Amino acid sequence: MLTRKQISLLDEKGISTLHDFRILSLTAGEPYLEDGVLSYFDGRLVTACGFPLRGAALIEETSLRDLSKYWIKERSAEGIIHIGPQSLDLRCLRAFSLRRVEKFRGQNFSAELMIKCNGNSDEVFKHRFYRRSCSRGFKSTVKTGGILSAEHLKLIETFYSRREITCYLAEMAFAIPAVLRSRRVSLIEARQNGRLCGFLALHESFKDMLVALFLYHDHQTPGVSDFLYGEMLRYASRLGAASVNVGPSPTRGHYNFKLKWGGESAVPPYYLLGWMRGRLRLRWHKAWGPRLVRL
């Protein structure tokens, strides 16, 4: 469990989406900050973040290995998921009957990108993609917390029905109701002729950086994503944010979309390692919700 001092430190120095404990804990478990490493524990599986906080040195491999052994030996964890900027040798876990079940090296487009806000919401009007999207007659509204309307739920289901379900989408499906009700999350809507055709969730995560959690749209309205990105940057500027972390990209197309909006690398591409024992070796998911229903 995090102390008030640790929460303040994460709010001040967080940079990665993995540091956004208020959201990630909904899917990965209870957050802990030990020796500079942020981890989440759901009672069986530990997700360890190998990305350092802003201004901190790269976390040493020995520290990550020692922490992994601690969770297995002292806290009876059944598995470790390590996500960080470097590969990690965890063969020491074989002594505890764990075996590697996954190894993945992120592509260059999986780096987390940051878009600067410049502190001036009027600057967004100069962006040609935003100006073009505005010509399509979109109207924007911003709502904060407590939103769980049938209109939003229908749009989310439409979005999911037309996308291949990735691990991230599966995890977020379980967290959506809690996210939409959070007072720290703002929903930026795009309407055309009164009809909701897309919305973006923006989280007030860190001191001077917001995190874009997700963007849902109806897959049929041209320009809606550009309009939402422009409105997101305008709103973030009004809140006084210096930048928005728009997260990693599942495809090069998503990555290029963020680049055209001025995205710059904030967190490098990640390595993911999964070591498990027992039943988790045979059937597992790194998030508690999907695992609960045996996905």
Describe this structure in words.
The chain has 295 residues and is an alpha+beta fold. The mean pLDDT is 92. The relative contact order is 0.20. The protein is globular, with a radius of gyration of 20 Å. The chain has 2 domains: 4-106 and 270-292, no CATH class; 110-267, Gcn5-related N-acetyltransferase (GNAT) (Aminopeptidase, 3-Layer(aba) Sandwich). Helix 4 (128-134) packs across helix 7. The chain has helices at 4-13, 21-28, 61-74, 128-134, 150-161, 167-181, 224-238, 252-260, 279-282, 288-292; strands at residues 30-34, 37-41, 45-49, 79-84, 99-105, 112-116, 138-144, 185-192, 195-203, 209-217, 243-247, 264-267, 271-276.
Strand order of the largest sheet: 7-8-9-10-11-6-12
Q: DSSP strand (E) fraction?
A: 25-35%
| CATH fold assignment of the largest domain | Aminopeptidase
Q: How many domain units?
A: 2
Query: In angstroms, what is the radius of gyration?
Result: 20 Å
Q: Unreliable stretches, pLDDT < 50, 5 or more residues?
A: none
Q: What is the total tally of β strands?
A: 13
Short description:
The chain is α+β, with helices and mostly antiparallel strands and 295 residues long.
Q: Helices and strands in order, then pairings?
A:
Layout: H1 4-13, H2 21-28, E1 30-34, E2 37-41, E3 45-49, H3 61-74, E4 79-84, E5 99-105, E6 112-116, H4 128-134, E7 138-144, H5 150-161, H6 167-181, E8 185-192, E9 195-203, E10 209-217, H7 224-238, E11 243-247, H8 252-260, E12 264-267, E13 271-276, H9 279-282, H10 288-292
Parallel strand pairs: 3-4, 10-11
Antiparallel strand pairs: 1-2, 2-3, 4-13, 5-13, 6-11, 6-12, 7-8, 8-9, 9-10
